[in-house]
Design goal:
Length: 440
């Protein structure tokens, strides 16, 4: 007797309309789009990605830093050999195993005196954002404010947890505090509960704008008055081009309003995928006890990534230990590269677009970081980016990916972090040719 074969069917097909609504959101498509364009035009000069400079990458550094952390465990922590091996090879604490080293780094570089137990080491800062928003989102009334233009990763994380993002206007000094106050009022009248405001105070992505010191103090006063958390994201602060770094919001915070989000992607190396959150706010539990907000984030993390890879933590900790717990010292060469690249970008734009001649082109002048923004006399959208890559051999980022609506249609972001001086000159020549072509 021969068995009847099952009827032929194709592979299972899912309808995206039946999946989570975030998967249809443009914010989640931006990263894939940029990677796809870059992959199709590998010979184009790229001012698009916010990646760190690769000229100082050495494979031996990984081994050097790992051995340095191993010595730290054995000599300074006085752990026996079996515990050293366990720390590197086994699952570790959900909150991380290098929290004491990172806390010391924050004290040395930023003047932030954080309880090491208030730190959660995460798989990149992106996970830290997700954990914080997931914990804060109790129901559909909860919303997060974000200074626009906002980093697409924050918007994407909010979409994943079904949290509305309310834009707040930026200003030359970083944030329009009157608009923030108005946004809070509008949200509350609409029945929403604004839980936090996200911003990058130092050389923000995508604009490169920074908050001045009076604005930092005024923002903290406003947050305390309104009962609003501040989510301070600081991946670029060490890359100051002026020699006059401003204090972080967290170092100025006296009332516990700031959750500090950090990353070693730009200052350590991106392949480690190590970020962190400093969440020292007190949380009252159901049984009347109090704990740290970091402990609540750890609960979420335990169900997402379980823990952050020990080897990634060890290598970054080794780098910090090797440089006296200072990211500034560890990045001296990189700071000079970015400072020089920013000067070359600004000088190059000025030479190609002198005031009063040719197309009307303008740009801002950041004090450091990785990015600047150029305003052009036409629409700088995804279709033009493809044309730019194909016909002119230069890549950049349309600012529309960071805004809701059409308010940034004539602006493009240029990243100067991963390019050489020769690429800057060639890329700006190609960009100038595109602008002349489009301006007619």
């Amino acid at each position: 007797m021969t068995a009847t074969p099952p009827p032929e069917t194709g592979p299972v097909e899912l309808d995206v309309a039946g999946l989570h609504t975030s998967l249809r959101d443009p914010a989640l498509e931006s990263m894939d789009f940029f990677n796809e364009i870059a992959g199709r035009y590998p010979d184009a000069v790229s001012f698009a990605p916010g990646r760190p400079y690769e000229g100082f990458f050495e494979v031996e550094q990984v081994h050097t830093y790992l051995r340095r952390y191993e010595r730290y465990l054995a000599d300074e922590r006085r752990l026996p050999p079996d515990e050293v091996r366990r720390a590197l090879f086994q699952y570790g604490r959900t909150k991380g195993i290098v929290h004491e080293v990172v806390a010391r780094c924050l004290e040395v570089d930023e003047g932030i005196h954080a309880d090491p137990e208030a730190l959660v080491l995460t798989v990149g800062c992106q996970e830290a954002m997700y954990l914080v928003l997931r914990a804060l989102r109790a129901d559909a009334r909860d919303a997060v404010l974000a200074v626009a233009p906002a980093y697409v990763g924050l918007v994407g994380a909010a979409r994943l947890v079904d949290m509305e993002v309310l834009p707040v206007a930026s200003a030359p000094n970083g944030v329009d505090l009157d608009d923030l106050t108005a946004a809070l009022s509008r949200a509350r009248r609409a029945g929403l509960r604004p839980r936090a405001c996200y911003l990058v105070p130092d050389f923000s992505n995508p604009t490169g704008v920074s908050l001045d010191l009076p604005t930092r103090r005024a923002l903290l006063e406003l947050a305390a008055r309104e009962g609003l958390l501040i989510l301070e994201d600081n991946p670029y602060g060490v890359f100051d081009a002026t020699g006059e770094r401003l204090p972080t919001l967290k170092s100025l915070d006296t009332t516990g309003q700031v959750v500090y989000l950090g990353s070693f992607a730009k200052t350590g190396f991106p392949g480690a995928r190590l970020g962190f959150a400093v969440a020292d706010q007190r949380v009252r539990t159901a049984d009347g006890r109090t704990g740290l907000f970091a402990d609540e984030l750890s609960k979420v993390k335990s169900m997402v990534t379980v823990n952050t890879p020990a080897l990634s933590q060890a290598v970054i900790a080794g780098k910090l230990l090797e440089h006296g717990y200072s990211l500034e010292k560890a990045n001296r060469r990189e700071i000079e590269v970015y400072r020089d690249n920013l000067r070359r970008m600004l000088d190059g734009l000025a030479r190609r677009f002198p005031a009063g001649s040719g197309p009307r082109v303008a740009w801002n002048t950041p004090g450091g970081g990785f990015f600047l923004v150029v305003t052009v006399p036409f629409r700088g959208d995804d279709a033009l980016l493809e044309h730019s890559a194909r016909e002119h051999g230069v890549l950049w980022t349309p600012m529309r990916h960071f805004y809701e609506g059409e308010s940034a249609a004539d602006r493009i972001r240029l990243s100067f972090s991963q390019v050489t001086p020769e690429q800057i000159e060639l890329g700006l020549d190609r960009l100038a040719a595109l602008i002349r072509e489009q301006a007619g």
